[in-house]
Amino acid sequence: MIILGIETSCDDTGIAVIKADQRGLKRTCLPTKQESMRISILEQAPYGINFDILSNIVSSQVKVHAKYGGVVPNLAAREHLRNIEPCLKQAIKESKINLKKVDLIAVTTGPGLIPSLLIGVNFAKALAYKWQIPIIGVNHLEGHIAAIWLSPNHKTSKFRVPNPNFFPAISLLVSGGHTQLILINDFGKYKIIGETRDDAAGECFDKIAKLLNLGYPGGPAIATEAAKLKTKSQKLKVTLPRPMIEQKNYDFSFSGLKTAVLYLIRDNKEKIKDEKFVQNLCAEAQQAIIDVLIEKTMRAAKEYKAKTIILSGGVAANKELRKQLTKATKKLNSKPQLLIPHLKFCTDNAAMIAVAGYLRYKFKRPNNTNWRTISADANLRLKNW
Ligand code: KG4
Ligand code: ZN
């Protein structure tokens, strides 16, 4: 099956063509409408689905938004409108498939910036109407989680239908717009157990980078500065708070951290001119975010006896977070498996949307996949299948 993925929820225009090959699945094991999903999934456990990424085009708008230190929604929509058709053409060309071969369109319907979402959703609906093929709306966050099934090496991009040893899973989803801890008890069964009460982790990186004039997006810029600190002797005493780390819930708050950096800059007007001080400040800000994320994730993993921990979203590209989460997971007595998307698929892309759309289409078998029923929703929540 060939799936066209479309992603325009924020400032990246993404179009991908993926091929889902389920030759490994026994026909009799495919879920039928009558079967309960749990049974059909257990039956399929030894089988898998190969995802071949035939093309994955991401047109970044970083240059457009950089001068504002963040995404400007209306400018983002204008850029999506300009880029989306060339991206489609390039995606189809690179995939070397005939347009008529596309079986399903998967498009991000939310959450995100409504001007941006509307461009992708309406474009996708027009294609579904023109080609007379099914279309499925995808929750962007479900897309980020589905990125764990993608591999840059097509041959190994294998989705193993989760077996009973996979659940419960705890997913830490950290992006520019979201910071959530999600309990996944079964295929398509999500429960948000905690989330940020104000800024998202990625937003915090972006805002701190803006305060330090490090450019946009802030996450990679702060990580780069922090990584310049090579030896202990270069370490200066810079201390920032770890908001809500002691609280016995799974919620987060990052706006206070940004304010703490603002005051630190205000009170150290001379020191801030020193690049070593900036590097220390970046390292401490990054570590403060990581400490809170890991502490809460580990606590959730223990409480819910997680067999799998999933890290996803743009901030999952942070190398220190990946490294430290791997270390923390190994220390857990229950030894859960840790799944982190390949670096290439952490930030917004349409391949992850295509995979999430395909899985929902295949396993939920939605009744309505008509273009008329699809609409954008800026505040879309993760819904159970
Ligand atoms: O998932 P994503 O591409 O877009 C949203 O859905 O929001 O995430 C973008 C966010 C930005 O805030 C960016 O600063 C952050 O991910 N990010 C990083 C890194 N790469 C991207 N944060 C920390 N370290 C990184 N290496
Ligand atoms: Zn995202």
Short description:
The chain has helices spanning 37-44, 62-66, 73-95, 114-131, 140-146, 201-211, 218-227, 255-267, 275-303, 319-331, 351-364, and strands spanning 2-7, 12-21, 48-60, 104-110, 135-139, 158-160, 169-174, 179-186, 189-195, 308-312, 337-339. By secondary structure, the protein is α/β, with parallel strands linked by helices. It folds into two domains: 2-150 and 343-373, ATPase, nucleotide binding domain (Nucleotidyltransferase, domain 5, 2-Layer Sandwich); 169-339, 2-Layer Sandwich (Nucleotidyltransferase, domain 5).
The sequence of SSEs as H and E is: EEHEHHEHEHEEEEHHHHEHEH
Helix-strand category: alpha/beta
Give the biggest sheet: 6 strands, mixed
Number of strands: 11
Roughly what fraction of the amino acids lie in strands? 15-25%
Distance between the termini: 21 Å
Report the CATH superfamily of the largest domain: ATPase, nucleotide binding domain
Averaging pLDDT over every residue, what do you get? Answer: 90
Number of helices: 11
Rg over C-alpha atoms, rounded to the nearest angstrom: 21 Å
**Class of the largest domain in CATH?**
Alpha Beta
The CATH architecture of the largest domain can be given as: 2-Layer Sandwich
Annotated CATH topology of the largest domain: Nucleotidyltransferase, domain 5
Shape: globular
| Strand line-up in the sheet with most strands | 5-4-1-2-3-6
How many structural units, i.e. domains? 2
Could you estimate the helical fraction of the residues in percent?
Answer: 25-40%
